[in-house]
Amino acid sequence: MADTGTASTSSEHDGSFTAKTYKRRWWILLVFSFTSCVQSAVYNTWPPVADALKIGFGWSDSFSAVMLLMYCTAVIMGTFPVMYSIDNIGVRHGMVLSTAVSVLCSAVWLVGLPLRQTWLLALGSFLNGLGSTVTSSLPTVISTSWFSVSERTTATSIASMGYLGTAVAFFAGPYISGANVTASEVINKDTLPTEFVDQLQTGVLNILYFMTALTVVGFWFTIIYFPSQPPQCPSKAQTHPRESFWPGMKHLLSNSHFWKLTLAYNLPNSIFNSWIPFCSVSFRSLGVDEVKLETHNSLCMEPVTSGWIGFSALLISSLLSIPISWIADRFKRKLKLFLQLANGLALALCLILALIQRGCISISDHQLSIAVLYILSIGAATCINGFIPIYYELASECAFPVDESLACALLTTLNNVIGVVFFLLLLIPALASDSEWMMWTCVGACALAVPLLFFMKENYYRLDVDTACTQTDEEYRAVVS
Q1: CA nearest neighbour of 250 among 419, 406, 44, 66
Q2: Are 293 and 307 in contact (CB under 8 A)?
């Protein structure tokens, strides 16, 4: 489809260079963000209904861990081949393939679940991981390609709102599907009526129908209109030549400050977001159900469930990332300070959560303890997930002139490597049954990020190109080399 959208909404002149932004950029951002959210929702299909799977299909908690493990494995294996291919086929074709693979994942699941073929379900998760390699690596590419310097971090926050989809899955799983289970029903699963077990099986299948519908919508949105780039660049930095794939990889591998930032981002983020789909398992010992029911025939939509805690934490943290990024756009050279403050607060909140789960902090009133879990989980998620766009932007600045997609690909790959280790630990029966270690791991990850951020030197090479356009290419290359 020809790129014939609305004319530019703004322009900036610098000698022979004219920066332009186009109204159509908001459609591009909407489609990209929607696709990312859908793939994240598909990723989080199984953990929110872990108890329903245990009753309806006889599958243990480790089944959900295997599904997430297959997703992470696909991302690790596929990210760099996919990024190398996108260099040749363009962003549009990469997005079309990404959404098509997500549709294929849903189709495989719809075949595998009624047949109870867990290998097909695992294959579907692997396919979704392959599709997600595109959307997880391109948020800063979308923002840099289409948005001006003053909008870039805000656009990155919207492009990287995949965790909003993970939050939707918390809600869709237990409530839309009807796959509703309480902690007491898990304990007494052998005495439950057959009709209730059948209802759970149908409910889980309903989840897959819902996810399939979302993937098809995302595919058609991408087909309708999603060009690789605008006719004219929105900033001077976008016109600057990027290093090709292999030289760029070599540059990143030797960039110590980039790796300090990468570890500071991935340790808390990967571990916390690997834990939160299993918060129903972690909070079960505190008397918090996946879903609270009055009867098997009527829903009691009280938000006193671990699913609602996970949903609220991811939803609010994703939405708050937009105003956080908007503020960061006004303080372009203070991004490291933002991250240090956020990580320090995340460390404190995760420590309190761990102490509550350990029993060192006891709250006698059950309703009050639920409220505290809400506040702590939402606060920790906001400090970790709400600042993801700032990590992406600072990583792109440190890596420049390496292409933004390659920098984000490295961030994503390491994130999933840590996730794989986490999910492998869940396959150990002793660790799967005792979830207390998960929260303490989050505490340790946040603590390790403190010195990494402290010793990391922040550089704004890309921003320098935009704000000091009089600098010659030779002078610039001397600075970044």
Answers
A1: 406
A2: no
Contact 439, 354 (CB under 8 A): yes
Cβ 322 vs Cβ 158: under 8 Å: yes
Cβ-Cβ contacts under 8 Å for 244 (sequence gap 6 or more): 87
Beta-carbon neighbour count of residue 178 at 10 Å? 16
Residue 291 is given by DSSP the state S
Is it true that domain 24-227+235-480 has CATH number 1.10.290.10? no
Contact 25, 148 (CB under 8 A): no
Domain boundaries, the chain: 24-227+235-480
C-alpha span between 297 and 308 (Å, rounded): 20
Q: At CA 310, angle to CA 142 and CA 356, rounded to 5? A: 130
Q: Which tens digit of pLDDT belongs to each residue from 388-445?
A: 999 998 998 888 888 888 888 888 888 888 988 887 887 777 776 666 788 889 999 9
User: H or E element: which one contains 87?
Assistant: helix 61-89
Q: How far apart are CA 155 and CA 134, in angstroms?
A: 17
**pTM of the entire predicted model:** 0.79
Question: Which residue type, as a one-letter code, is found at position 303?
Answer: P
Helices 118-137 and 91-115 cross at an angle (nearest 10°) of 160
The pLDDT tens digits for 146-167 are 988 888 889 989 998 887 888 8
- Using alpha carbons only, what angle is made at residue 189 by residues 184 and 192, rounded to the nearest 5 degrees? 100
